[in-house]
Amino acid sequence: MSEHHRPHDPDASRLADRAQMDPRRRLVYLTFSRTVLVVGTLAAVGVAWTQPTQTHSQLLWLGPLLVLGFLLAEHLTIDVDIRQVGWAISFTEIPLVLGLLTAPFEVVLAAHLVAGVGSQLVRRLTSNLVYNVGVMCLEIAGPFAVYALATEVLPDGAPRWTAAVLGTLASSLISVALAVTALNILRGEPRLPAALRLAAHTLVVGLLNTSVGVVGYEVAVSAPWGWALDVLVVAALVALYRGYYGLLREQRDLETLSDVSLSVARSGQRVAGKPGNLLDGALAEADTDEWQKIADRIREQLSAKRVVLRLRLDPVAPVRTLVAGKPLPEDAPPSRDDPILQLPGSQVRYFRSLDAADDVREALAQRAAHEALVVPLRGSNQLLGAVEAHDRLSRWRGFGRSDVQLLRTLASHLATAMDNRRLLARLRHDAYHDPLTGLLNRPGFREAAVDRLRRHAGSMVLRIDLDVLSAVGDALGHSWGDRMVIAAGGRLREALGSEVPLARLEGGTFAALLVDCDEEEGRRIAEQLHQELAAPYPVDRLSVEADAVVGYVQVPVEPADDGDADADVDTLLQWADVALRAARNAGDTVRGYVPSMGQIFLRRFQLVTQFRQALDTGQVRVHYQPKVALPGREVLGVEALVRWVHPEFGRLDPDEFVPAVEATGLVDALTSFVMDNALAKVRGWLDRGLRLSAAVNLSVRNLADESFPDRVAEALRRHDVPPRLLTFELTESGVMADPERALPVLRRLHALGVVLAVDDFGTGYSSLAYLRQLPVDEVKIDKSFVLGMGTDLGDMAVVRSIVELGHSLGLTVVAEGVEEDAARDQLVEMGCDVAQGYLISRPLSEDRFEAWLRARTVRARGRRDETVLTLVR
Ligand code: C2E
Ligand code: CA
Ligand code: CA
C-alpha cells in the first residue's frame, strides 16, 4: 500500500472562490485554468491520435472496472497536515498503471473523467470543473505519452512494466506541478524548496503505488488464479489501512480534544485571574485568542474549509462569532430562524445542499458551503453556542462518521469546560461584588486597589458614610433603606466614572480609590461626593434627606515598611475611616487623615478589642458618686460610673473608652455589667434598711435595642429591687439621634416604673417643650453650667431657667458638677432638688463609698418613718 500526496485546496478547487480573490490573482487563475483545459484537451487529442487504435474484447467490462478503480482509489484517502497545508493521500496510481497496461488511452481517460467529474457533479462542486477536467486530461494524456516514448527509447528486452511505471510517475509529477502552480497563484505558496520536497515525496509514494499496481497485474496475468490472490491481498491491505487509519484518526482526535479542553481551561484561568468586572473588556479580548485557537484546531482536525464558533459567553453579551479557515461570505449574523441553527437536543446534525430542503440549501448558500456539520454547545441549563464545520476539504468525500463522532465529543467537552468557566467567573464575580449595589465589595476593592496602588503614584482612598439610613429604614421599611443605598451607589458611580474602583463596604459605607490625584483635587472630589449624596432622595412620593461624611487619606502617608500591599489597602481604609470619624465628631463633612489621628485610633482600636476581656478579668469596676437632696442633705442615691484600670495604659477615663465601646456591639455588655453591680449594691443597702437608688448611664445603642426593657425587668426581678430605685440617665442627643426607635423603648422602661433622667441637659438642641413629649422624670443640668455659675451670669441664668421650667413640667431637677459651697447655696436658693458633685464626694470605689457613708452621714428618721442617711456638716 502506498500513498500519493496531493494538495487539497486546488484539488477541491474551493480556494478559488472568485468573489474573494483579488482581481489580478483571479485573472491569472482564470487564464491558468483555461490554459490547463486547452492544453489538457490538446494533449488528449494528440495522444489519442498517435495511439494505435486497438479493439479489445475485454473493453466492455474493463471500462466500468477502471471507473470503479478510480472512484475507490480517490475515496480511500488519508488526510494529513504538513505544515498547515492539508494533503490527501490517495491511491490513484494503482488504477492508472493498470489502465496503462491493459486498456487503450480513450478508455482510461473516459474512466477517469467519469469518475472525477461524476463525483464532483454529484456533490454539486461545479465551480472549478473547467480546471479539473483539464487536469484530468493531462493526468492521463501525460502518462500515455511517456509510456509510448519509453517503449520507443527503452531497449527491446526491457519489460513492459518499466514503461508503465515511468508513465504513471509522470502523471503524479504533473498533478503535483499543477497543484503547486495553482496554489501559488491563489495563495503565493508553497515556495520552491517546499514544492521540490513535495515532488520528491510524491515520487516515492507514486513509485510504491505503481509497484503495487504492477505486481498485482503481473500476478493476475501470469499466476493461475492470480487475480484471486490480488483480491485477497487488496482486501487484507484495505483492512490494514482502515485499522491504521482509524488508529491514526483516534489518536489525533484525542490530541485535538485535549488541546481544546486545555485551551478552554486556560481561558478560564484567565477569567479567574482577573478581579471583577473592572477588567471585563480587556478580558474578553485576551480570551478571543484562545477561542480562535480552538476554532483553528477543530477546523484542522476535521479538514474543514471553515469552522464557525458561535459563543454566548455570558447571558447578557451578544453572541460572539469566531471563524477559522476561510472567512464567511458576509459578516451578517444568521437570522433567528436559520434552519441550520435550530438545534434541539445535543446531537450533531449534518446538512448537505445536495439533498436538503430549500431553506437549508439557502442557509448553506449564505455560508458559501455545500455541507455543514453543526452541533450545539449545551451547558447545564442553557445553550452556550454552536459549532459549525463547513465543507470537508476533499475532492471526493464529505464529512464522515468519525467526524461526527469527534464533533460530538468536542462539543460536550467544550460545553462542560465553558460551563465550568462560567461558574468560575460567577463565583469570582460574586466573591468580589456587593450583590445589592453591584459595586465591588471589600475583597474586590482590595484586589482592584492593590493593582492600581502598585502602578500609580499619587493615590487617594476615600471613605464615604451615608447617614440617617436607620431612620429611613424604620420609617419606610428596610427595602427603602436598600433603595437609598443603591441610589447613593449610583450617584457615586456617576460622579466618579466607571474607571474608579468603588466599593460598598457595609451598610451605607462606600470606599473609592482615586489615582494620580493630589490632595487639593482629592478634597474637591470628596466635597463633590458629599454634595451628591446630600441631595434629597425621591423615595416613592416622599423625598428623603440624607447626609454624608467623607474621610480620605493620601497615599502614601508614611512609606510602607513592608511590601504587603493587601495589608496596605486595609490600613488605608482604616485611616480613611479615622479621618471620617474625626470629621463626624467635629460635625464636619469632609476631612483628610493626619497621622496623629492614627495614634488615637490605634489606642481606641486596642481598647475596643480588649474590653470584653477586661470585663471578665475585673479590670473594669463600678464607682459610685452620691446624689443628695437640697436643701436637706439627705443622701438619695448614687450614680454608677464605670472605671477601667488598664494594665498598660493605667486608669482610663470613661470619656475615652465608653464612646469606643459604644461604637461596637459591646455596649450591651457594659450596661448590663454596670446595672448588675448597681442593683446588687441597692439590694445590699435595702438589706441593711437603707433606701438608696442607683443611676445607670445608657447609651444610644441601648435605646435602639428592643429587648433592653425585658432585660431590665429581668435584672430587677433577679436582684429583687423595686423599679423606683433604678434610674437611667440618657443624654438628649441619644434620644434625639433616633427618636422613632428610642421612644418605644423609653415608654416601656417608664412603664416598668424605672426613673428616667435626661443627662447633660442644656448642651443639646432640644427645648424643654420637647422634653414634655418624653416619658422622663428628671433633668440633670449639665455640669458645665453649674461649674460656670460662680463666674458667668449667663450660666447662672441658664441654670435658673432650667430649674424653673423643669419644675413647671413636674420634673425633678438635678445639678451635677457641684464643687463649691457657693454653687450649692445658689442652687438651694433657686429651688433645685438634687445636687451631685465633688463638693459632696468624688465618685468612689465600692469600699471607699461604704467608708464615706459611715464617716460622712448619719442615720435619721425620715418623714414616712423610714431610715434616711443625712450628710453631716
Ligand atoms: P456623666 O454621666 O455626665 O457623669 C458625670 C461625670 O461628671 C462623671 O465623669 C463624674 O466623675 C463627673 N463629675 C461628678 N462631679 C463632678 C464635679 O463636681 N466636677 C467635675 N468637674 N466633674 C464631676 P466620669 O465618671 O468621668 O464619666 C464621664 C462620662 O462617662 C459620664 O458623664 C457618662 O456619660 C459616661 N459614663 C460613665 N459611666 C458610664 C456607664 O456606666 N455607661 C455609660 N453608657 N456611660 C458612662
Ligand atoms: Ca450621668
Ligand atoms: Ca452629666
Automatic annotation (TrEMBL):
Molecular functions per Gene Ontology = cyclic-guanylate-specific phosphodiesterase activity
The residues that cross the membrane are 27-47, 59-76, 96-117, 129-149, 161-186, 198-219, 225-244
Q: Which residues form the EAL domain?
A: 604-857
What residue stretches are annotated with the GGDEF domain? Answer: 457-596
| Source species, domain of life | Bacteria
Cite the InterPro entries for this sequence. Cyclic-di-GMP_PDE-like, EAL_dom, EAL_sf, GAF, GAF-like_dom_sf, GGDEF_dom, Nucleotide_cyclase, Rev_trsase/Diguanyl_cyclase
- Keywords from the UniProt entry: Membrane, Transmembrane, Transmembrane helix
Q: Name one Pfam family in it.
A: EAL
Q: Which PANTHER family match?
A: CYCLIC DI-GMP PHOSPHODIESTERASE PDEF, SIGNALING PROTEIN YKOW
Q: What is the name of this protein?
A: Diguanylate cyclase/phosphodiesterase
Source organism: Streptoalloteichus hindustanus
